[in-house]
Amino acid sequence: MLAKDTDRIDHFVVALAHLAPQPDGTHKYLAHAGTAFLLQAGDGCFAMTAGHVADTLVIGEHAALFADAAGKWRTAAVVQVDKHPTQDVAVLRLQPGDYASPFTFGRTQEHASLGYTLWGYPEAILYETHVDGVAVPRPDLVFSQGHIRRRISRPVAVQEIIGDRFFELSTPAGSACSGAPVLSTRPGRQWEIIGVYVGQHHSITGLGIVDLAVGYAVRTADLDLDAPDWTQYLGVS
Hints:
This protein is mainly beta. The protein is 3% helix and 44% strand. It contains 2 helices and 15 strands. The chain has a 6-stranded antiparallel barrel. Strands 8-11-12-15-14-13 form a 6-stranded antiparallel beta barrel. Strands 9-10 form a two-stranded antiparallel ribbon. The longest helix is centred in the N-terminal third of the chain and has 4 residues, at 51-54.
């Protein structure tokens, strides 16, 4: 099992990718799908992501990529998807393996001004690595932080996002960070999930200037209100 080590957060926050198996046993990276994070729940073979990210996954073709104890990328095939009935989140069952996770789900109803941290795999830096002058896709884990601007209990004006229980965040994390864990900064609770990042919105003035940029996260404290069977994923007895 993997230790709780913030220097190796890529043990627990994983990239989701479309892969093609190669004759030599390796995998060719075809496309970046988003971000997910491992859960302690069940038999340890689960990860959570955004529901609209799960919609793009094909069983047998998509996998989670995470670092092993040596820091090398490992693949874990996505074998099943369980979408939440009303909110933009989903749980992925991964192929069996020696997974571990430090994350827990907070049950406190959080509000504006609380600080948060976030780890994700933005698409914008996917092709920064070059080999022999050719850009190759390679996910890179990125940290961001900010504060909750407000709670929103209605749909938001972002087309791909469904649901009605969100945090509006002060800092957009970037495309393909959907599915990233939003973590509390309360003392002693730095591994506590309070939300799942699902997207961002930019308000543009008539002059084409970005007037406001915010992110959105599904609030996780009450995901089991309209999905009682999700207690198995949230660690609620």
